[in-house]
Specification:
Blueprint lengths: L2 E5 L3 E6 L6 E8 L6 E5 L3 E4 L5 E3 L5 E4 L2 E3 L3 H9 L5 E6 L11 H10 L1 E13 L3 E5 L2 E7 L4 E7 L6 E7 L2 H8 L5 E3 H9 L12 E4 L2 E2 L8 H14 L5 E2 L1 E6 L3 H13 L3 E6 L4
Parallel strand pairs: 4-9, 10-18, 13-19, 15-16
Antiparallel strand pairs: 1-10, 2-3, 3-9, 4-5, 6-7, 7-8, 10-20, 11-12, 12-19, 13-14, 16-17
Length: about 280
């Protein structure tokens, strides 16, 4: 898919936010070539989905402009990038993107249902000029030149999750099948602590995988669902590059903080080229 795309029609979602529990509504609207992915918050402010607008990365990626904030953008952005959407206006009413089932499947299914419109202008790709390494304690992220967007993810959690490794090619067909359905997750004791802190107010066993001492409290969709969900999160965070990533990302125990730090650094220091790739190249 070398041309820029947008949605053939608008899609909309309503529901509670995972962390705030507050009602929220989001509409994703078609947009012209060169528009990119942009947010409009409460009809008050509009800004591009880029790393410079990240204001918080604790448990979710939060974007903001001035006094306006929107939380948990990563699942929706992941679905848009994973499904190959280059241009869209994301209009949000409320403090958070609705959690849906805790994965990106609802968003990806909606994109597939309306389909994509080809805009006949070359897709803008972010292509790294050399490998870069980012660290945060024992967390590691490597971004390297590649012919496509590919993620290799390693996680290492206490039992019963343990160590998992998954790799995925981020193309619409494989994304919809291997990445989008995997839900956010956590340990029972962590969830209880988050609730006490006023977070995870919208979390339920229907929109999150909760692990107790002996295993998940509900069936997994995939044996490596935690690692696959971390790929989902990474794809959403890398949408904040502002162009389609043409790179390989090797991630070890990474999370929103490291993803967004890397994206901001890569954008700030020009460590890649935002290049229009023609449809015949």
């Amino acid at each position: 898919m070398q041309y820029q795309t947008t949605l053939r029609d608008a899609i909309a979602f309503e529901g509670a936010g995972l962390h705030t529990g507050a009602p929220a509504r989001v509409r994703v609207l078609p947009a012209p070539a060169g528009h990119g992915l942009r947010f409009r918050l409460n009809d008050a402010v509009e800004f591009p989905a880029r790393g410079e607008y990240v204001v918080e990365t604790v448990r979710a990626t939060v974007l903001g402009c001035g006094e306006h904030r929107v939380s948990t953008v990563e699942h929706l952005l992941s679905a848009l990038l994973g499904c190959g959407v280059d241009n869209a206006l994301i209009a949000v009413d409320g403090p958070e993107i609705p959690v849906a089932d805790g994965s990106a499947k609802v968003f990806a299914d909606a994109v597939e249902a309306v389909g994509l419109a080809t805009l006949h202008e070359a897709r803008i790709r972010w292509i790294p000029t050399e490998p870069r390494v980012f660290r945060d304690g024992d967390k590691l992220l490597v971004v390297a030149p590649a012919s496509s967007f590919r993620v290799r993810m390693t996680v290492d959690y206490p039992a019963p999750i343990g160590a998992q490794y998954v790799e995925a090619e981020i193309a619409p067909e494989t994304y919809a099948r291997e990445v989008a359905p995997n839900r956010t997750f956590g340990f029972l004791h962590e969830v209880e602590a988050l609730v006490k802190r006023g977070l995870a107010q919208g979390g339920t066993l229907e929109n999150a995988v909760v692990f107790g001492p002996d295993g998940p409290l509900a069936p997994l969709r995939d044996p490596n669902e935690p690692a696959r969900h971390k790929i989902l999160d990474l794809v959403g965070d890398f949408a904040l590059l502002g162009a389609y990533p043409q790179c390989e990302v090797i991630a070890i125990k990474s999370g929103h903080k490291l993803h967004c730090t890397a994206v901001r650094e890569l954008r700030r220091h020009g460590d890649g080229e935002s290049t229009a790739v023609s449809a015949t190249s």
